[in-house]
Amino acid sequence: MSFFNSISRSMTRAQRGSKRATTPTSATFSPAEMLPPSPVVSSPKTPPIPKPLYLSSPFVEAALVKGNFKTIVMLPKYVDIMEWVAMNIFDFYTNLNEFYGVITECCTQQACPMMSAGPTLSYTWINHDRKNVHLPAPTYIDYVMTWIQNLLNDEATFPTKSGHDFPQSFPSTVKHVYRQLLRVFAHIYHAHFHQILHLRSEPHFNSLFAHFLSFGREYELLEIKDVKGTSSSPVGVGQLWEAWRDMGILEG
């Protein structure tokens, strides 16, 4: 089911290169310069980055829901697709906000001075001057959650009353919401998964994130490039996506 392809149908219902250098010859150098070169001492290799805890067994397999998430994200019969998307957006926001609430004391400006989601990736926020700025993670997440809460409370964006239709901009809006929620998930996995483990909540958090990823892909709210990042700045949870796909939990 394509959320974006069905939007018009749903809206009609009363529901809501450099040159090569010259090769030197023996005539170019003096005899002293032609002595064998001294052996080169290789510098020690940079130690590999250890695998994140969330990719390590048994944590990567921890889940409350077994099997493929495809079955629980399918649009129920007789349910309007925009109602279904709106309800799930609300649930994802509420549950993620609760998880963040229990680790918020650990996510401080000192501990998380950047909104990081991998060893070489930090997200930026667009300020009032339309410039990309780096913010501490707690500030960034507070902006995201406040923005989404205001949208959810806006009857013109998320209508709850009978006879009120969803706006034409709804698909685009929820796609932006989804991208920002993904960033919050990615930061928690990268910077605070050990705290999730300390609370013994990794099965709950993994299931919530797998549900979020599956739903986003089913209704075209999530781009793979947002999940994986780039080769120079990969998103940490991109590897988690791949691991769950290989395990049969998610589809490609």
Automatic annotation (TrEMBL):
Per UniProt, the ranges with Low complexity bias are 21-32
Q: Which UniProt keywords apply?
A: Metal-binding, Zinc
State where composition is biased (Polar residues).
1-15
Q: Does the keyword Metal-binding feature in the UniProt annotation?
A: yes
Write out the ranges of the annotated region (Disordered): 1-43
Q: Where is the composition biased (Pro residues)?
A: 34-43
Q: Which InterPro entries match?
A: MOB_kinase_act_fam (IPR005301), MOB_kinase_act_sf (IPR036703)
Residues annotated as binding Zn(2+) are 107, 112, 187, 192
**SUPFAM superfamilies named among the record's database cross-references:** Mob1/phocein (SSF101152)
- A Pfam family (short name) is Mob1_phocein
Respond yes or no to whether keyword NAD is given for this record: no
Q: What is this protein called?
A: Maintenance of ploidy protein mob2
Which species is listed as the source?
Answer: Galerina marginata (strain CBS 339.88)
